[in-house]
Amino acid sequence: MEALPKLLSESATIDPKLLEEMNIILDHPKLTRETTVRDAIMEVAAIMGENVKLRRGFALSSANGIVSSYLHTSPQPGLGRMVGLLTLESEKGGAPTEVLQRVGSNLAMHVVAARPLFLSKDHVAAKTLEAERDILKTQAATSGKPQVAIEKMVEGRLRKFVEDIALLEQKFVMNDKVNVKSVLEDLSKEVGQQIRVDSFLRVEVGEGIQRQ
Predict the structure, then answer these.
(1) Which domain holds residue 20?
(2) Are residues 54 and 74 in the same domain?
(3) DSSP conformation class of 209
(4) pLDDT tens-digit series, residues 158-180
(5) What was the pLDDT predicted at 11?
(6) Do 111 and 86 lie in a common domain?
(7) Domain with 140 in it: what CATH number?
(8) How many structural domains compose the chain?
(9) CATH number for the domain including 190?
(10) Helices 147-165 and 126-140, interaxial angle, to 10°?
(11) pLDDT band at 209 (very low <50, low <70, confident <90, very high)
(12) Are 178 and 171 in contact (CB under 8 A)?
């Protein structure tokens, strides 16, 4: 596919109309040539006998690292119902690509499985915390415990809530004895420089569509 605008390691939503104008090189038994994304979609629709549309588009890029991906429920290379994407950035650049890709692929799989909403606890939106705190206060109020105990209970459960939705705080799906932050610390030691996740993205087919 033609180069997308440089995004400085940030995930971005791309207008589907812009994507449709881009060229793509197809590698498929029935579709092997260079064409536009729009024409490729039309040909896929004709082959499947279904109405196929490009509904959403996203892009990630890395300045000093890699973009890793994981496809879930993948009938063939490059296709899947769910995808996890993330950028691994190295502090100095030049970190071994194969090492970054090995860990990056596992972390991308984690993104699919664990469904994080924010990168770190510092990125959790204030309104998200306040909404959850209100829910927890309402639940705790029926416990009959003293107010001091209720406040401690709420704050403890709120910390657990953050651990469940912030990527770096989540227990790693491949080893729940450590969190994602620890995985990155081990990777940094292995390559001799700091490695961080700069951005991530999880996309699932059909999400956001209201079903009747």
Answers:
(1) 11-59
(2) no
(3) P
(4) 999 999 999 999 999 999 999 99
(5) 61
(6) yes
(7) 1.10.286
(8) 3
(9) 3.30.479.20
(10) 140
(11) confident
(12) yes
